[in-house]
Amino acid sequence: MALRNLIGASSLFVLAAFRRSLAPPPRADLPVLLSITLLHMIGFSILSTIGLALVPAGRSVVLAYTTPLWVTPGAWLLLRERSSTRKTIGVVIGLLGLIVLFNPLAFDWSNRRAVLGNVAILAAAFCWAGSILHIRAHRWQSTPATLLPWELLLASTVTIPIALFAAGPPSFDWSPRLVALLLYSGIPGTVIAYWAVAMAGRRLPASTVSLGLLATPIVGIVIAGLWLGEPITPSMIAAVLLVLGGVALGATRN
Asked: What's CA 118's distance to the chain center, in Å?
């Protein structure tokens, strides 16, 4: 994560220098810069990474992308975006999906690692929801593209020492495949993804932005089953359908 932030920041600063378009962030945009960096780039990423180490990937991706469930009521309470019966029902259905996935009756509460993993992933979803709401509420002076190099620079500054403390210096064998994976995660997977979410959040209602995230859990579960060999159980399928159905219902108009 630290390496991909560093790659993303470096590529954007080089591009900005080449285009002679590098400018310091306006003071009025510093709150949203900090919000995106701390809540999404650092908070969501670190918490979801911790959870992924403790919880199967398929379960992790469903829990992490419950963000829209928290965005919808948050948009109503904080941004005064119009709520409706449809949105309320959607949130309830989505929460039922979480209950099916989590299955508190069958969950091993004595397994501290599993409890910590699930709590970390849900906390990550809350962090991302807060970032989406702030992006929508903020009165922008510049653009997400202008702030992105500085956000990734700050994220790198914070995550590199955390990574060194938690995992030590990188110890892996360099190869063309590894370089390609790092470049992919650092540029398309980081730069383009963060820019797209911020641009959408700036121009669209928060609940509509959250709707655009719905494809990720489905893709994640399919890949976890086909590539990682994780079982796709009937309860997992039911949970996905409930969560996605609830979010879709809550994020669309009457």
From this structure: 15
pLDDT tens per residue, range 240-250: 788 777 767 76
> In sequence order, what DSSP letters do the residues of 186-211 get, joined into one string?
HIIIIIIHHHHHHHHHHHS-HHHHHH
Single out the residue of 127, 158, 141, 112 nearest to residue 5, CA to CA: 158
* Other Cβ atoms within 10 Å of 79 Cβ, number: 16
How does DSSP classify residue 228?
A: S
Distance separating alpha carbons of residues 13 and 24, to the nearest angstrom? 12
- pLDDT tens for each residue of 186-233: 999 888 888 888 888 787 776 667 666 666 666 777 777 888 787 777
d(CA 233, CA 54): 19
Integer angstrom CA distances of residue 82 from 93, 120, 206: 19, 30, 11
